[in-house]
Amino acid sequence: MSPEEPNDTAFKPEEVVEEVFEGEATGVEVEHEETTQRDTEIRPWDPEKIRVTTRGYSMRNVLDMIDDGELELAPDFQRNRVWRPRQKSRLIESLLLQIPLPAFYFAEDKSGGLRVVDGLQRLSTIHDFTRNQTFALADLEYLSEECGGKYFEDLSPPLRRRLLNTTQIVVHVIDPSTPNDVKYNIFKRINTGGEPLNAMEIRHCMSRNRSRDFLKLCASSDSFNAATGGRLRDHVRMNDREAVLRFIAFRRLTHISEYEQYGSLETLLDRTAELIDSKDDVPDELLDRWHHDFVRAMDNARLVFGEHAFRKWPRSSDRLSPFNRALFESWAVMLADYHPDQLAGVQTKIVERARAAMTNDSAYIASISASTSDPQRVKARFAKPRAIMQDVGL
């Protein structure tokens, strides 16, 4: 066995740890990875693949682009839009004082559309103040007498012109010809919005409406929320959308051995999102079938495992564990193959065997606990549900 290969026979399960974001538990189990997949995919770094141009825009121009749909503020990407009132007002005050803003980053798609990569909070705040007029200025440092308590329409004409016409911003635009893996690393390095973006949040910025809408449709379904106990509803780190994408990614493989050709889980997920965005690769009929399969898998998971669906449930404990992504993708893909009537009467047997595996099978426990993107562990965790279903006569 090489040093890089996971040693399943020696694996000792650690205590289940729940992810925490900004001091609050997310309801999702931490995935322990020995290496960062993305960091090993582009070595050595090739600067020739970085294609970024710099452009200047007036604030009015940028706001018009948002209104006309030419510039996307990453729809449904909520966590980066939560600013306190003081932060919003101080940003507007800075513009009125003609203090230059840090540069923005946009990503351009092949059709010429632009999407905000870095600077979402700032642009959202400015757009909300000038166009939607959702808040009045408060807690200002220098302009409290002149602007305090005022909405955009209440400002004097010179101040409104200063905000819209005089304010110039510098934008670095990532060219659509830049490879996705390079884009990922650029996004990861430039993000300045507090907590760094995770892989799914970056993928959301990189993808198009078709895949985003489809993932949202599945993630917002009653079946998904019931099967996951509602803990992933509108998830703050987009783990709801990632779970759906992982189901589709593995569901579309003819055999689990095909996983190895992608080199990593993140590459498989990237490619799946790209395929969903293409009607030529994934026609509407196939997308509808995947949605049907997903809903059926969620209903079956709830039928068989109840509130413990997609959670570790060893024989030693009935405690409700956090949502486990590796269990989700492997069991959901399996359960999508069955009509609920086929599962009637064998739920107890399935649960017994699944709990036994989560208690005594060290290789299986390893496959759902650590280095979960390793090809051998992927095969192991997909093989176990198949063996269990065959063992109960399905």
List the helices and strands and how they pair.
Elements: E1 18-21, E2 24-29, E3 52-58, H1 59-67, E4 71-72, H2 85-96, E5 104-108, E6 114-118, H3 120-132, H4 144-147, H5 157-166, E7 168-174, H6 180-190, H7 199-206, H8 209-219, H9 222-227, H10 239-251, H11 265-277, H12 284-305, H13 325-335, H14 340-343, H15 347-360, H16 362-367, H17 375-391
For the structure shown, list the relevant keywords.
394 residues, alpha/beta, 2 domains, five-stranded mixed beta sheet, two-stranded antiparallel ribbon, 17 helices, 7 strands, 9% strand, elongated, GmrSD_N, GmrSD restriction endonucleases N-terminal domain-containing protein
Overview of the molecule:
The protein is of the alpha/beta class and 394 residues long. The protein folds into 2 domains: 18-25 and 199-391, no CATH class; 51-177, no CATH class. It is built from 17 helices and 7 strands. The chain has helices at residues 59-67, 85-96, 120-132, 144-147, 157-166, 180-190, 199-206, 209-219, 222-227, 239-251, 265-277, 284-305, 325-335, 340-343, 347-360, 362-367, 375-391, and strands at residues 18-21, 24-29, 52-58, 71-72, 104-108, 114-118, 168-174. Strands 3-7-5-6-4 form a 5-stranded mixed β-sheet, with helices on both faces. A two-stranded antiparallel sheet has the order 1-2. The two termini are 35 Å apart.
